[in-house]
Amino acid sequence: MARRFILSFTVSLWAGAMPAQTEEFATLKGHGGPIMDIAVTDQGQVATASFDNSVGLWTDVTPSWLEAHDAAVTALASAPDGTIASAGDDYALYRWTGNQAEKIGSHKGKINGLAFSPDGARLASASWDGTVGIWGADVPPIFLSSHQGGANDVAFSADGLTLYVASMTGQLVAYDMSAPFEMRLLVSHGFGINRLITTPDWIAYGAVDGGTRVITHEGQTIADLTLERRPILSMDYSASSRQMAVGDGHGFIMVVDTDTWSIARDFRATRKGPVWALAFSPDGAMIYAGGLDDAAYRWPVTLLSEFDPAITGERAFLRAADTMPNGERQYTRKCAICHAITPPPSRKAGPTLFGVFGRKAGTLPEYRYSSTLQDLDIIWSEETIDQLFDLGPDHYIPDSKMPQQRITGQQDRADLIDFLKHATSSEN
Prior knowledge:
Layout lengths: L1 H7 L17 E4 L5 E6 L5 E5 L3 E6 L2 E6 L5 E6 L5 E5 L3 E6 L2 E7 L4 E6 L6 E5 L4 E5 L2 E6 L6 E6 L5 E6 L3 E6 L6 E6 L4 E6 L4 E5 L4 E4 L5 E4 L7 E7 L4 E6 L3 E6 L4 E7 L8 E4 L5 E5 L4 E6 L25 H9 L36 H4 L7 H10 L1 H4 L13 H14 L5
Antiparallel strand pairs: 1-28, 2-3, 3-4, 4-5, 6-7, 7-8, 8-9, 10-11, 11-12, 12-13, 14-15, 15-16, 16-17, 18-19, 19-20, 20-21, 22-23, 23-24, 24-25, 26-27, 27-28
């Protein structure tokens, strides 16, 4: 059973897919939205998850795109054999063979964390619906919910016999992986625990209040690495270099020597915004990170102090309101994160709005629309765009992928439409 599951999860990495592990800074550019997670397989394959609904697989700095999700991809995991699994805001989990997706299953809320068991036979998923899913081949999924609140992250013990869960209520619990899946409480932190790492010797976790702590498998404190930065958003561990990396909301990457539990490096990675994603290379020599930019970055760990912040955090919706006319302001606040106004192609989560006036809904070539939008008989015009934002997408186009965005002010909608008519015209 386990062997069949591992084989069914095996990803076919095409020739040349392994990135060159050079001791150089690099920019992994090409996504159309912020980077939400990064995974590096034992074989060196780098995968990035993005708000643009896609997973990027990288040959050094050249991407191949994995497209299946209908919303932001928020979590990645890799198995010992190189398998990639992904999950996201569409509540769905996928496994990948080459660039082909197979849906594993779904939760009833956002999936924020994934982890393979050490033998690759099981995949665990942490969801904001309050459950943890256990997925295996040819067996029904198991959903665990004895912990309190939504689940933010999951991690297996080194022997695969225990599953650790970090929750939004600040609980860190351990589930015995043999039925009846008895739960043991290790930590009640008081603030939500976002990220979790396990090794044979210790467990580390990072929390909303900036708490960064290391405990034994019985719950006793080993080290407290908390700094005045919050929240903790990303963590990774390199067994090769015995270093742990911690990313926070202030844009720093803290690298910890786990032999001495001392801070070896404290690097400002972003000029603005958080570090949402972190991953070491297999040998621990390089570290990958992502945040608000449409790109991930790679640094040599030993040279971190020589670099300026690389993640710019420059996003249109963060521009000061008084620097833009009202129509442009409405676009940057409500539309820019998902929609470009330039000619295609665009890698953003939604189709480009270039030439939108007079275009039938769901007909832009090369964009993967939902069946709902493809079946609608709507021509985009001043009137239909006004109705879209007046009623909201969930009422105007029920079951579409477009998130709820209403503009309640009539003049605000009129100003947005005037801006779009000018900015998306081929005559400009």
